[in-house]
From TrEMBL:
Keywords: DNA-binding, Transcription, Transcription regulation. Pfam families: AraC_N (PF06719), HTH_18 (PF12833). This is AraC family transcriptional regulator N-terminal domain-containing protein. It comes from Paenibacillus terreus. Residues 201-299 form the HTH araC/xylS-type domain.
Length: 307
């Protein structure tokens, strides 16, 4: 990391540290800016981090290291990298480096599709609709220009009177640099008419709204206005998962939330997220999280009580 980049990173970490007052994710005085703070490794301690990305966003770890598990892929990022996500996704996040003395600190900046469209020329919106779809989650390297823009956006929290005028400008600058960076294409394809990503997004939205229900792949392909083979290919390119795997991620992540946050029993949880067999639910939950639902619930509740 260059000296200039390192200095900007330290300054940003100090700002985020000063403006976070509790564990977990929290909103800020800037509507599209969120912080998160963790003083212990996430995978062994807490369950509050969101398991679904629901808007085009970038995530910057300003202190510490995180892993994001997306399908069968694991993305590790920390200074000087950022994670860019282009659409609604079920993910599992883990904080790997964190302590009370040096907490894991990160920020999330959300964008709207209107924000993206505003920055794209007609030429950039002209694509080959039959081309290969791009994965919707990627890690990229921060450079000095982009980190400086992020620092200026976060710094507005010290000058709240400037937020209405300057926050949209700084957000636009950050998004411009993301769009013209190494992984800007996935953001462009979600707003470009005729791209497979637009149609896959419709199928993903259906799964998000109806993950408890069984489905036929042909029905999803019809929603996406694609043949079944084409739908399978583009869905896997964009999400790194099959539709069945995607649904399973949604079901099991929601099941974990119900067990921990709403204290449902294992059988009721299985039925509520769409499983017909509690035995199958327990087997798939154990495979995904490495522990049975009952033991996971007891362990995490005890960790929260001790913390």
């Amino acid at each position: 990391m260059s000296v200039q980049l390192n200095n900007l990173q330290r300054e940003l970490a100090a700002l985020v540290d000063r403006h976070t007052f509790e564990e977990g994710q929290q909103s800020t005085g800037i509507s599209n800016l969120y912080f998160s703070r963790h003083s212990s490794p996430y995978h062994s301690k807490r369950t509050e981090m969101p398991y679904k990305i629901d808007k085009p966003s970038i995530y910057i770890v300003v202190q510490g290291i995180k892993d994001v598990i997306f399908g069968e892929e694991r993305f590790r990022y920390g200074p000087p990298h950022y994670l860019v996500a282009s659409m609604d996704l079920p993910v599992t996040a883990e904080v790997l480096e964190a302590s009370a003395e040096v907490p894991n600190l990160s920020c999330k900046i959300e964008f709207t599709r209107s924000d993206i469209l505003e920055l794209l020329s007609d030429d950039e919106l002209t694509v080959n609709p039959k081309g290969k779809s791009r994965r919707s989650l990627n890690v990229a390297e921060l450079d000095v220009s982009m980190l400086d823009a992020v620092l200026r956006l976060v710094g507005l929290l010290d000058k709240p009177a400037d937020i209405p005028a300057l926050a949209p400008l700084f957000t636009k600058e950050i998004l411009y640099r993301v769009l013209h960076g190494e992984h800007g294409c996935p953001l462009r394809q979600i707003v470009t008419d005729g791209t497979p990503a637009i149609h896959i997004q419709n199928a993903i939205q259906h799964l998000l709204n109806h993950f408890q229900d069984s489905f036929h792949v042909k029905d999803l392909a019809d929603i996406a206005k694609m043949s079944v083979p084409s739908f399978h290919r583009h869905f896997k390119q964009i999400t790194s998962m099959s539709p069945i795997q995607f649904q399973k991620q949604l079901r099991l992540q929601e099941a974990r939330r119900l067990l921990i946050m709403e204290s449902l029993n294992v059988t009721d949880t299985a039925f509520q997220v769409g499983y017909e067999s509690p035995t199958q639910f327990i087997r798939e939950y154990s495979r995904m999280f490495g522990i049975s639902p009952k033991k996971d619930m007891s362990r995490l509740k005890k960790a929260d009580e001790d913390g």
